[in-house]
Amino acid sequence: MVSRNGLIHWKTLHLDCIRFTNPISFTFSRGFSVSSQICQNNWVKAVSNAEKVVGFPTSFLSLRSVANDEISNIAVYLKKLIGTGHPLIATAKSLVYSNDKTHQTRGLLVLLVSKAAKIDQTQDIMPEQRTLAEITELVHTAHLIHTGVINLNTPNVNLEMGNKMAVLCGDFFLAHSCVQLASLQNIKVVELIAQAITDFSTAEFIDIVANENDSALDRWSYQSKLRYGTLLAHACQSSLILGDNVELVEFGKSFGLEIALAWQANNEIQSYKNTSKKADHVLFKLFPAETPINEVISNFQAVRDKHVDAALKILGEFPKNDANLALCNIARALKY
Amino acid sequence: MSRFLFGQRLAMKITSRHLREGYNGLFKSQLLTTNLIKHKNQIQTGIPNITNVALDAVPTTGNLTLRYDAVVRQDLSGLYGDIRKCLSETQATLVPITQYYFDGEGKAIRPVITMCLAKAINYHLNVTSPYAFCLFCFHLIIYVIDYITICSFNKIRSVVEKQKKVAQIVEMIHTASLVHDDVIDAADSRRNKSSVNMVWGQKKSVVAGDFIVGRSLELSAKIQNQEVINLIAKIVSDLVSGELMQLDGSANAEERFQHYMEKTFKKTASLIANGCQAVSVLAGANSTVQTVAFQFGRQLGMTFQLVDDMLDFVSTSAQLGKPAAADLRLGLATAPVLFAAQKFPELNQLILRRFNKPGDVETAFDLVHRSDGLEKTKELAGQYCDDAVTQLAQLSPSPYQQVLFTLTHELLDRLK
Q: GO cellular component annotations, sorted alphabetically (chain A) (predicted)?
């Protein structure tokens, strides 16, 4: 009953979010938002099919597990934030309301990898692997929320409130994932996910500026690897450890890394295409200043395609089955 | 053997009673009266000046810091170094933020408690376990065979190493929570220096806090003990749910105190309690001894926080390293206010609106000093302190246990 109430809170919140559209716009490159219409059909199809393979839709994946008393309390405060323009609202909204299937796809990937590794396809995904998929979502959401905290030099009551809620929400997701992680009873998995947390925290402190050893593009790869790669790589690796697919563990790890980088690269391309302020975008910094826009895009598409191809190649090591096919389709949908 | 132990227990009970009554006597005769006199003065002047009421009320207890330092100094000397090392293998720009609060200026009271209790429990298990006793006799007989001694010595050392890691994790998680709390409360100072969010901004501070949590989890995985991981996960989830409880001041006046106590357990005591249990798990304690460890940590943690809440009303900002009456300013009703509300029900209105109207903080501060809120808080802290002592007395007498007895009372009578 309690959890039902929590869910209702979230739903009302989400309705409110839609009703009051945000007056102030913040430019944040947040998570994955593939908004281009052309790719959307391919993408939605690939993800919807994949959801059928693993048995249930992944939207609400993380909310179902945390829709309880404590979070409903936060939801009340979140309502007050609507209209302040704090990025937390955008993140909360995308969690509850996403029909472009671009959110909570990490959990889906983990489930697909778990399923694809099973030689006997009648075997179901283990409950531990489902928990791990949830943890992956929770940890990623916590990361998104915490990086949405705004630096305030002058006191601003509303935005301070937003920051307070963002810290608490993120901490709540992290704490919940800690408990879930402990319940998996596997110390190696705890270590791997903990490393992912330290890695994405570290990523916020990396500048994308070329130095004597690395080009700007190398720095981008390094930052994206820490920010998104480690979590997905370690989550895929962990799910194979839990499933006892010893010989595939390393492939799972590399697949997670490649697909995360391909995904992020695609994401950067989409946001670069859509943004009006091209000079502020991260892609602009990766290539010499005089490079034309089309060339920047095609150069970076090459980077993305390299990662997609690497991911597809690794999938060749997995048994041929529906889950594997679904993973291939998702990877290809990134490269349209 | 058992008769001998019984004798020891009895002696301990007597000692602890003596300690308790000694403390009670001190409490009644000196602290209370001095406080009351001061309050009367304040009522007369009508100005609730935030001064140090208890400074001259508590006799100086001598240099106790040195005494407990001597017992666990060996184990804790490297603590901050280890933590800094653990946090330094990363991006150079992140290092100063994560290490900012590990400057050695903190009381490091949590690792001291954890390590002392670890040693007390190790000692207790070696003395009481029949197996250890047999082993001891065995060693006496064939102590010439060096390698056995070396093996068991190594085993003990590896246990202590793991327990030190727990102490380190406890301090790291605590510090991460401080960093996040400072952002949540928009604090500008801590331990007499600018708070981390003032120096680096909110976003980097929050992420740096996450980094410390991540490293603590990595470290707990390195201990290679599932039960310890469960306890540490419990610490993290309790800390956060305590913080969430703080958001929601229970509307019902009767439930308010219960709510406050639960919040206090989750935010402060859980860290110490579960940390204590974790070191006892590593020592190989059975569930009875584990419960003793947990309960001791819980009672001590409650004492610690109740005293902290009281000091917020009596110490100066210079002593606390943060502004006095900070809790009221944050809209929080702690034990002194809740007790005061029993005498002055008009406080309930202020509690409900979280002291957000001009003058509310001053009114509440004044009413707390005019009520017996501070004495009742100290009395409650005293009860928890006694319970902690009772728990501790169940362990075999050892120098570590003595240090903890002293420390427990010192925490009750501290000024900052």
A: mitochondrion; transferase complex
